[in-house]
Amino acid sequence: MFSVTVRDSMMVAHSLRGEVFGPAQQLHGATYVVDATFRSASLDADNVVVDIGQATEHLHAVLGELTYRNLDDDPALEGVNTTTEALAKVVADALAARIRSGQLGEGARDVAGITITLRESHVAWASYERDL
Amino acid sequence: MFSVTVRDSMMVAHSLRGEVFGPAQQLHGATYVVDATFRSASLDADNVVVDIGQATEHLHAVLGELTYRNLDDDPALEGVNTTTEALAKVVADALAARIRSGQLGEGARDVAGITITLRESHVAWASYERDL
Amino acid sequence: MFSVTVRDSMMVAHSLRGEVFGPAQQLHGATYVVDATFRSASLDADNVVVDIGQATEHLHAVLGELTYRNLDDDPALEGVNTTTEALAKVVADALAARIRSGQLGEGARDVAGITITLRESHVAWASYERDL
Amino acid sequence: MFSVTVRDSMMVAHSLRGEVFGPAQQLHGATYVVDATFRSASLDADNVVVDIGQATEHLHAVLGELTYRNLDDDPALEGVNTTTEALAKVVADALAARIRSGQLGEGARDVAGITITLRESHVAWASYERDL
Amino acid sequence: MFSVTVRDSMMVAHSLRGEVFGPAQQLHGATYVVDATFRSASLDADNVVVDIGQATEHLHAVLGELTYRNLDDDPALEGVNTTTEALAKVVADALAARIRSGQLGEGARDVAGITITLRESHVAWASYERDL
Amino acid sequence: MFSVTVRDSMMVAHSLRGEVFGPAQQLHGATYVVDATFRSASLDADNVVVDIGQATEHLHAVLGELTYRNLDDDPALEGVNTTTEALAKVVADALAARIRSGQLGEGARDVAGITITLRESHVAWASYERDL
User: Residue B97 contacts by C-beta under 8 Å, 6 or more apart in sequence?
Assistant: First the structure.
């Protein structure tokens, strides 16, 4: 199994709902350093899982819909408790949609699955892994 | 599949038994930077795999039984060759016991598995992965 | 010259004032991974610049006054454009006040200077360095 | 499941074939920081997956056949488009051959699989994972 | 003293002249992860040393003149033994010229000095520090 | 000013003397990831501060006198409270002696100063900087 990973980041404000979150129930914020991993059993005609340039561009576009915002006011996230786990799934699903619609190129249609990891600090991170 | 990881560290003395270890057969020591990963197919009512605060607290408690000690004199490890792999299993099993007994909260009872990684230097680390 | 550094982090919401900041003029957020460096020409009776435990505890207390907040609503920062540079100075000055008042112990009174570095992402950080 | 990972690096020149690579079609170069992970369901008599010293030595030997070279002129890679993914497989297959022939010791014969990760920058890396 | 640092990278082929370099006398290559630090005693009207966006853009432009090339064939580097130290100076001088000519904005004219660090692997890096 | 840095590590057992150290008064251990920085105002005939190969070899030799040992039993450290700061000075002084005696080559005689940083965990490190 082959995989390729590219890294970018986003900077958002949000608050979390639930007593378990303690002070994180207040409006605060986070930088999420985001790693997007693309997996495939085989390489395409160019000997890649997915073109790193294309992967980087589309991860950046997906994060561009979230970064520099207050997620509490984002209509697309209404009703979502925006934990790190939940945001990892939001990013993964958006990237998966782009792959399936052919935006990352024909070769990327063979991508078998992706994993999105959001690092929220030097001591905590979360991931969401899904098939395509 | 979702996962959450928290990081802490421990500082121990120990010696290893077996010619293969060369100078590491002498009493020496290590800082292990420890990553504990919790995996779950679904999120709980708070939209998390496990509360990061609880996960951090319990990892710290587990490491607290090992850190600042000479493992060669630890009765709980008598007869154990305390390689990085073996210590990863010790930490994983202790954390698994806490999850199963409900100490990390009811939501954590859905954790499907955990992985413990011990980084012993900038160029070497070991992991142990187990189901719950 | 000796130095000791300890690391912690804070997670805040804020917005920046000024056209130069582009989308960062909107309410967003950041995790700042914070490194506090203490410098001294000589070591104290315990052979340290400052006790790492005390340094860690006081850095955590200083960050505790900022983390999990919307800095735009913090009366202590009213009128401050809370750039990474400016926040580095806020942290440095608060830590310096604690050192001068003896809260980090008598040995820490010989600390000659401190540097605070705030890492806002994997590709950008800022520092403020001052004497004591 | 246990695993052990060791890290080394190699520095090579090469060019890539295919329009998708843009300026990387020109002769350029890369440092690949290489992580070799060895997996096993059980530990050997010394309580390790594989001796870290042996693993380090053999990874270094495998990389020694590639580093400080222009891969475009390497007869062993003739006709290979030397993408990061492809090089990860080259390293993995060479290391697997050494394990199977017993060069990493008898204990290493129980290694179930290996993963090779090549980090080409702070924002991009690729892996190849295979069974033994 | 304040400072701001931004990170980018470049990927080049080159060879080094001199017996001391051993196998690095052959054509090989490197990824240099490049940190550019800007220092200033005071902040500008926007409370920054230099706008991070502008700093990032101009570092990228400077590296764009080197990346994806064989430095042995670069007329601008003819006669230069392109060690990591020497390349750090090339980047620093190019960035300094842009600051002095006002390309990073009027605020950046108060930048007192810059440091360029080139990381060539996980175990080696070089820096060049200069005034403006 | 130019600088070059190389990284290695050592793994030691030791105990610290003084109530301030709390549980670290017990015999425990640490991995120190060690960065050795060499500074010079100018480059030598090969365009380097110091040959990275030589620097790496001599740092490794200096650490070889400490690693895989219980420092409490090391005659060379008798009476020394082996804090991270103190060990940074031990390494720096040993490396400085090698430079002054010409072991790192004639070019290295122009090295103006060195800094040794010992990272004891992901959240704490200490440095010692000296002239030559």
Answer: none
**3-state SS assignment for residue F62:** helix
Phi, psi of C124 (to 5 degrees): -155, 135
Residue D14, beta-bridge partner list? D28
Cβ contact D56–B128 (<8 Å): no
Angle at C112 between CA C111 and CA C116, to 5 degrees: 85
Instruction: State which H helix or E strand residue D70 sits in.
Output: strand D69-70
Residues of F in contact with A121 (CB under 8 A): none
Q: Estimate to the nearest angstrom the gap between the alpha carbon of A8 and the chain centroid.
A: 9
Report the SS3 class of residue D124. Answer: strand
Whether F108 shows a pLDDT value over 90: the answer reads no
Residues of E in contact with B123 (CB under 8 A): 122
pLDDT digits (tens, 9 = 90+) for C33-71: 999 999 999 999 999 999 999 999 999 999 999 999 999
* Interface C-E: count of C-beta contacts within 8 A: 61
The ipTM value here is 0.96
CA distance C129 to C126: 10
Residues 6 or more apart whose CB falls under 8 angstroms from that of E1 comprise: C128, C129, C130, E39, E40, E41, E112
Distance CA E40, CA C45 (A): 36
Give A113 to chain F, closest Cα distance, Å. Answer: 32
Q: What is the largest CA-CA distance in chain F?
A: 52
Cα–Cα distances (Å) from F66 to A129, E31, F10, F69, in that order, read: 44, 33, 7, 6
Q: Is A41 on the interface with D (CB under 8 A)?
A: no
A122, closest residue in chain F (CA to CA): F122
- CA dist., res. C102 & res. C104, Å (int): 6
Mutate to test the interface with C, among F77, F90, F127 (most CBs of C within 10 A): F127
The chains found to touch C (3+ Cβ pairs under 8 angstroms) are A, D, E, F
List beta partners, residue E32. Answer: E10
Residue at token pair 């980084």? B119
pLDDT tens digits along F53-105 = 999 999 999 999 999 999 999 999 999 999 999 999 999 999 999 999 999 98
- Please list, in sequence order, all residues whose beta carbon lies within 8 angstroms of the beta carbon of residue F3, skipping any fewer than 6 positions away: E126, E127, E129, F37, F38, F39, F40, F49
Interface test with D, best of E7, E11, E66 (most D CBs within 10 A): E11
Three-state DSSP class for C94? helix
Q: Is the dihedral of CA A46, A49, A52, A58 positive or negative?
A: positive
Structure tokens at F37: 């920085």
The C-alpha atoms of residue D92 and residue D111 are separated, in whole angstroms, by 13
H or E element that contains D7: strand D2-14
Question: With contact defined as beta carbons under 8 Å apart, do D11 and E11 qualify?
Answer: no
Neighbours of F14 (CB within 10 A): 26
* Closest residue of chain A to D80, computed from CA coordinates: A47
User: What pLDDT does residue A76 have?
Assistant: 96
Please indicate whether chains E and D are in contact, defined as at least 3 beta carbon pairs under 8 Å.
Answer: yes
Tens-place pLDDT, residues F25-65? 999 999 999 999 999 999 999 999 999 999 999 999 999 99
Distance from CA of C84 to the nearest CA of A (A): 13
Helix residue ranges per DSSP H, chain B: 52-64, 84-100
- State the amino acid at position B59 in one-letter form: L
Can you give the pLDDT of all 132 residues of chain C as single tens digits? Answer: 999 999 999 999 999 999 999 999 999 999 999 999 999 999 999 999 999 999 999 999 999 999 999 999 999 999 999 999 999 999 999 999 999 999 998 878 899 999 999 999 999 999 999 999
Burial class (CB within 10 angstroms; exposed 0-12, middle 13-18, buried 19+) of A78? exposed
Do residues F33 and F10 make contact, with C-beta atoms less than 8 angstroms apart? no
The whole-angstrom separation of Cα C1 and Cα F80 is: 18
Token pair listed for E43 = 């902040």
